[in-house]
Amino acid sequence: MSATRYAYLGPEGTFTEVALRTLPEAATRELIPMVSVPAALDAVRNGEAAAALVPIENSVEGGISATLDELTSGAPLMIYREVLLSITFALLVRPGTKLTDIKTVTAHPAAQPQVRNWMGEHLPNAVWESAASNADGARLVQEGRYDAAFAGEFAAATYGLEPLVTEIHDAVNAQTRFVLVGRPARPSAPTGADKTSVVIWLGDDHPGALLELLQEFAVRGVNLMLIQSRPTGEGIGNYCFAVDAEGHIADRRVGEALMGLKRICPKVRFLGSYPRAGVTPEEVRALRAGTSDRDFTEASDWLARSQSEASVKSLSDVCLL
Hints:
Blueprint: E1 5-9, H1 15-20, E2 30-34, H2 37-45, E3 51-58, E4 62-63, H3 65-72, E5 78-86, E6 89-93, E7 104-107, H4 112-122, E8 127-130, H5 134-142, E9 148-151, E10 162-168, E11 175-182, E12 194-201, H6 209-218, E13 224-231, E14 239-246, H7 252-264, E15 267-275, H8 293-307, H9 309-320
Parallel strand pairs: 1-2, 1-3, 7-8, 7-9
Antiparallel strand pairs: 3-4, 3-11, 5-11, 6-9, 6-10, 12-14, 12-15, 13-14
């Protein structure tokens, strides 16, 4: 395995590349653009890269299906950290192109919901075609296959294009979350501001099945940050659930919730416990009473004492008085 190579959703000039370059270690790695999310993750699986950065969620449309499905199936991979990036688009065109000249536009499918209203107002008759990535859309415009692409303004110079319009976004403060994925190994130590990701399969479809899964988290005071259903491919109505939960697998409340899921579910895939981006331990919400590691330890000690010979004898003596 090449420990010095990081793969990412390419080609050059994607938001993913920008997000990857925010990581300090990226300065000492060879950054390898890949044509798709599956290709980037397969580079990790087959040893071409030590890790890959891929988009997994945006604040407009939620989870990114291609990434969730790839992490759900195939050889297991693990998330080691996340990056949050504010997203705003530019309309990139070949030099000399005017807004009235644009008949076709392209970008990654995840971009469309973030610029749909702007398109409806300014390019109501333009035809949308999806590209493998926003930067790949810019490359296709450079080649003359489309009139314009929605991409980061920074991609214009790479592909010899001009930003005709900048600061395009339907939702103010839109963000995309990216994850650095590697082969499974021991999770990093808890930081006090962590997130745990898992995929859960239902045993069978019955009333309250999803509620049973959620209760494993709720009764232990574990807050869920994302839950998204994904089809298993085994027929209509068969789903698994991608879940992000506050906390670290080493936290008693989180570990016991995962054990509870493992008891009632046919399959649980652990995707990692890792630091939350942009959050310090001081900013994490206070735990509900009775859900700290100390509370779990004290309850466990009490149970052990209650089952010990001395404790049972003492209880019997009290009952005889």
